[in-house]
Amino acid sequence: MSKDKIIQAAIEVFSENGYHRASMDEIAARAQVAKGTLYYNFPGKSQLFKTVVKQGIEDIMQRTEAELNSPLPMKEKIERVIRDHLDLFLESRHFSHIVFNEISNGIEQDVLDELKELKRKYLSFLASIIEEGQCEENLCRAVDANLAAASIVGTLESTCNYYLNHQDAYSRDDLEQFAFTMITQGLFISFE
Amino acid sequence: MSKDKIIQAAIEVFSENGYHRASMDEIAARAQVAKGTLYYNFPGKSQLFKTVVKQGIEDIMQRTEAELNSPLPMKEKIERVIRDHLDLFLESRHFSHIVFNEISNGIEQDVLDELKELKRKYLSFLASIIEEGQCEENLCRAVDANLAAASIVGTLESTCNYYLNHQDAYSRDDLEQFAFTMITQGLFISFE
Amino acid sequence: MSKDKIIQAAIEVFSENGYHRASMDEIAARAQVAKGTLYYNFPGKSQLFKTVVKQGIEDIMQRTEAELNSPLPMKEKIERVIRDHLDLFLESRHFSHIVFNEISNGIEQDVLDELKELKRKYLSFLASIIEEGQCEENLCRAVDANLAAASIVGTLESTCNYYLNHQDAYSRDDLEQFAFTMITQGLFISFE
Amino acid sequence: MSKDKIIQAAIEVFSENGYHRASMDEIAARAQVAKGTLYYNFPGKSQLFKTVVKQGIEDIMQRTEAELNSPLPMKEKIERVIRDHLDLFLESRHFSHIVFNEISNGIEQDVLDELKELKRKYLSFLASIIEEGQCEENLCRAVDANLAAASIVGTLESTCNYYLNHQDAYSRDDLEQFAFTMITQGLFISFE
DNA sequence: TATGAATGAGGGTTCATTCAT
DNA sequence: GATGAATGAACCCTCATTCAT
After folding, report:
1. HTH tetR-type domain: which residues (chains A, B, C, D) (predicted)?
2. B28 in a domain, yes or no?
3. Which pLDDT tens digit goes with each residue over B44-70?
4. Which backbone phi and psi does B94 adopt, to 5 degrees?
5. pTM of the predicted structure, to 2 decimals
6. How close C28 comes to chain D (CA, Å)?
7. Overall domain count for chain D
8. Which of residues 127-186 of C touch D (CB under 8 A)?
9. I need a surface site. Which of A14, C28, D113, D188 has the fewest CB within 10 A?
10. What CATH number corresponds to the domain at position B68?
């Protein structure tokens, strides 16, 4: 079906180029459909973008949720969340970018609002995991869970980015261990 | 002088829109000069962008360096580095974004290389502070200092971003304390 | 169809203005299509130019070739070649100019190379007629046929040009006779 | 003096690029004067162009005239005229182009008229030499002398052009001999 | 359901020219 | 006499969108 081909192509093209630099022409070409077909299936570029982002966020949420339903100790759960995100970020270099950072000037306000809402929902989802760790097991520090979620995503994104530019210096495993340490224990050795 | 007006305008426009969405027309209008004046002073858009980024990075490096020359305990130094970065990031909403995350497709390769070099130099600068904390005072954990620098910047950027979208829920001071805690102690209460 | 309209308009505009002075805007206006349509049909200005030149050269080659297939004495054939070229040059004032003399600085090298190749092919075609006259009938002097071809084209072009600026002083027939005499017998009455 | 430096630079730049493609910036740079100085010395681009063309034409006329005052047989005089022109055309590749063929759309009408007048004067000068050969020595055929002049210039220009693109195949001497033969005797061996 | 030719607003860039110094 | 910063019109080109088929 055309719609699916288009979405797949759109994920690729948006991920590689970012919103503004991605062109409907290239999406159509990559999806092997005519340009008109894009507009037959989606009202416009920004709506297509929204669909892509939505799908991406739902994917990672589902992926992560599946892991969390298994009866694991909290510490391990968070390890997995980090691993899942590294997978996603490394796999589709710019996707996290788009989702979390795309400068949005030039997208219609209503689409923009929906995107913000999606992002909010996603951070809430992460925050709820953290809250679980705060309540249930007294594992996590009593910081604001939403800020913590944002901070984790930021850390993961920027370290992935650094890693991708210096793949000779680190292994994927180094990255994962570093991220886990940094996120859970912070920079300081002790702190009274 | 035109050149300064242009740089100021460029900082604004690039910060608000990102590279690709920023237009030379708007920069000229904001700087209250004719479009041709941009090209009299800079060879083109990408070079103007480079100048802006360079200046931004040099600014924050200088600002931070000044603080670090004072004889403060390491812990306080890092507190100040965080505060300086929050200042910068909050002040110019998307500047950090541009510097650290701008999707670069479509910028000439040579300019791109210079930008990467600038970024690398900046992260090295931050890393050197961390290394100092590792060696001199045995304060910092023995993680890779460059990755740690990247991770700090990522944390600050994404929490700032979150804060700017939820200013009703937090004070600037909340943000600062959160960032310091998260960066230095991490998410977990204890970890033996 | 748009493509044909564009080519016709391009012939006119390039002929009247030369490559650098011709503007895509004017071609679009003359073709009564939107500017974007030019770029839908051709990759850019230089490619459009190439198409125009190619078509022009192929036209004159075909036109001439048709004449030469008829079983005429060589002398008459050359008369016809001259007449055909005068037709072309007088009809589309600057076309020959463009083809044979366009200063090419600023056209992409690959297009330029194709144009040179076209020109070379055309001169070879003329040269082959001359060679026929040298061999078969011992009519033509044993000069280098390619130079001779170039020289004929130059003579025709510059006399046409002169004629067009002094139409009151000569008839088309005067021009034709003059060209034939000059090309075939030269300036001197006798030469021992 | 600035004026002279400018004219020399202008000759170079116009010769290399043609009128429309030549830029005042480059002329100024080549003359090592500021851009404003061009406008201090000349009213504008087209006037500067006119000056250059004028000087070029006067140069070649003087150069040729000097040769013709010596008491040579007519045949030799014409040989020299050809040689002088080849020198000029080969030396300054596009100068003849500019003078004899520059498509002039976009130059102010009054300058254009002056240029045409210059060209006319020059062709008359050549024509007068031919006329001398017709009358005095009964050497030249009784063709229209102005057309003959135009035709000679056209031949020389286009053969020079061909030669410059195929320098491996011919020597300068080949070119000179060819031009002399073609111009004076034409293509045909005999013609009764 | 799908197409692709056509559009036109807007983007980056060039350059002859002006003018205060 | 000479400068060079500043201008703005005009250039080539891109691309999201429309619409007849």
Report:
1. 1-60
2. no
3. 999 999 999 998 888 888 888 887 887
4. -105, 10
5. 0.88
6. 19
7. 1
8. 130, 133, 138-141, 143-144, 146-148, 150-159, 161-163, 165-166, 170, 174-175, 178-179, 181-186
9. D113
10. 1.10.357.10
